[in-house]
From TrEMBL, chain A:
One of its GO terms (biological process) is maturation of LSU-rRNA. One of its GO terms (molecular function) is tRNA (guanine(10)-N2)-methyltransferase activity. It comes from the Eukaryota. It holds the Pfam family Trm112p. Keywords: Cytoplasm, Nucleus. Its main location: cytoplasm. GO terms for cellular component: cytoplasm; eRF1 methyltransferase complex; nucleus; tRNA (m2G10) methyltransferase complex. This is Multifunctional methyltransferase subunit trm112. Belongs to the TRM112 family. Coiled coil: none annotated. It is found in: Cytoplasm; Nucleus. It comes from Penicilliopsis zonata CBS 506.65.
From TrEMBL, chain B:
Transmembrane segments: none annotated. GO terms for cellular component: eRF1 methyltransferase complex. It comes from Penicilliopsis zonata CBS 506.65. The keyword Transferase applies. One of its GO terms (molecular function) is protein methyltransferase activity. This is Methyltransferase small domain-containing protein. The keyword Electron transport does not apply.
Length: 126, 256
């Protein structure tokens, strides 16, 4: 699972959606793999506006990434190639292959296997 | 004609094989009228997130992602597929990535600008439940729409549908999930429609396929009655049966 995807997902349990604690889900025991992808700065510039930056910082920290800027890059900063390359690597090239995602609100754990996260719930919660 | 993604790697013993309904999706999204509408809708937004619910073989999501320039007027869409069946999730990953690579090779030979559209992930999930409110720009849903006396149970994570060879019972169950729609063939579609207002972005749009027995006119009326400024219109049709189209695709969006 890509780090960017973690910015788009939350707990699958309906009652958790209203709680701010259900986003972002928290990575645990994550095994990472780097899958190279061509660097496309314009593509990244079109993705950044839709990112929830505070949550991305939480995720990056959990995955052991060196600190990313405190605020979302804007204006001139979007021409900083080194910054964009770092974000490209974090958001698009880093894959979580194994591990789990945990909801801070209900404690439910979603397993990630072979890079695919399983959001099916136990039958008593379906 | 835009190229149809290759699905020769997909195990059709557990995953829905592309059929008339899948191809109606491809034809509808790539029709001049629909593409023009989508290109206008997404002319100035950030990179759109395209989500196919119940992505199966991934043929529809692969088509939309690889041909994003023709369909959405931009080369930077992000794709996520969801399916209750892990085999479908794996198949979709392969289908969408291959379709995008094929498109990029084609562009490189003809020296066109390169498509950057990207397959993000497949998620094993019921409908679009793990997606954040307001996150989806384009939702695609080719549901299990056949009226059946019973609805197969919604999969839970108590069972595993891992890559090991599935039993005959598991195969039958997984395939039944691809078509069996319960009462009026609408039970799963109704559950999805309930989630649409929450999961769609303000400028988002959902495409949902219906068959004649689903009573498309009634479904449309019920959407128009949702709180807020909702619109619904039939934008794709195929096959005639007793004077009615057998299959239609309904476009659902907020008129903001």
């Amino acid at each position: 699972m890509k780090v960017l995807t973690a910015n788009f997902i939350t707990c699958a349990i309906k009652d958790c959606k209203a709680s701010p604690k259900s986003f972002p889900l928290h990575f645990q025991n994550a095994e990472l793999e780097l899958q190279e992808l061509e660097f496309q700065p314009d593509f990244l510039r079109h993705i950044l506006p839709r990112i929830d930056w505070d949550s991305l910082r939480v995720t990056a920290n959990e995955l052991g990434f060196p600190s990313i800027p405190e605020t979302k890059p804007e204006g001139e900063e979007l021409n900083n190639e080194e910054l964009l390359r770092n974000l490209h690597q974090l958001l698009l090239e880093t894959q979580v292959m194994e591990g789990k995602l945990v909801c801070d609100n209900c404690g439910h754990e979603y397993m990630i296997k072979e890079g695919i996260a399983n959001f099916l719930l136990p039958s008593h919660l379906v | 004609m835009l190229p149809t993604p290759d699905t020769s790697h997909v195990p059709f013993n557990t995953v829905y094989e592309p059929a008339e309904d899948s191809y109606l999706f491809l034809d509808t999204l790539s029709s001049p009228a629909e593409s023009a509408w989508l290109a206008t809708r997404f002319a100035t937004t950030p990179a759109p997130l395209i989500t196919e619910v119940g992505c199966g073989s991934g043929v529809v999501l692969g088509f939309a992602t690889a041909n994003a320039q023709s369909i959405f007027g931009r080369r930077d869409v992000l794709a996520i597929g969801t399916d209750v069946n892990l085999h479908a999730c794996l198949a979709t990953r392969e289908t969408v990535q291959r379709a995008v690579q094929t498109q990029q090779k084609e562009e490189a030979t003809s020296q066109q600008e390169t498509t950057t559209s990207l397959y993000l992930d497949s998620l094993t999930a019921d409908l679009c439940r793990p997606l954040r409110p307001g996150s989806v720009d384009v939702l695609l849903f080719n549901p299990p729409y056949v009226p059946t006396p019973d609805l197969p149970p919604i999969p839970s994570n108590d069972q595993t549908y891992g890559p090991s060879k599935p039993s005959f019972e598991t195969e039958s169950y997984l395939l039944s999930l691809t078509y069996a729609g319960g009462a009026d063939g609408m039970e799963t579609t109704n559950r999805l429609l309930e989630l649409v207002p929450d999961v769609l972005a303000d400028h988002g749009v959902a495409y949902v396929l219906l068959c004649a027995q689903n009573k498309p006119a009634q479904v449309r009326e019920s959407i128009l009655a949702w709180p807020g400024e909702w619109q619904a219109e039939i934008v794709g049709r195929s096959g005639m049966q007793a004077g009615w189209e057998k299959l239609v695709i309904l476009r659902i969006w907020r008129s903001t």
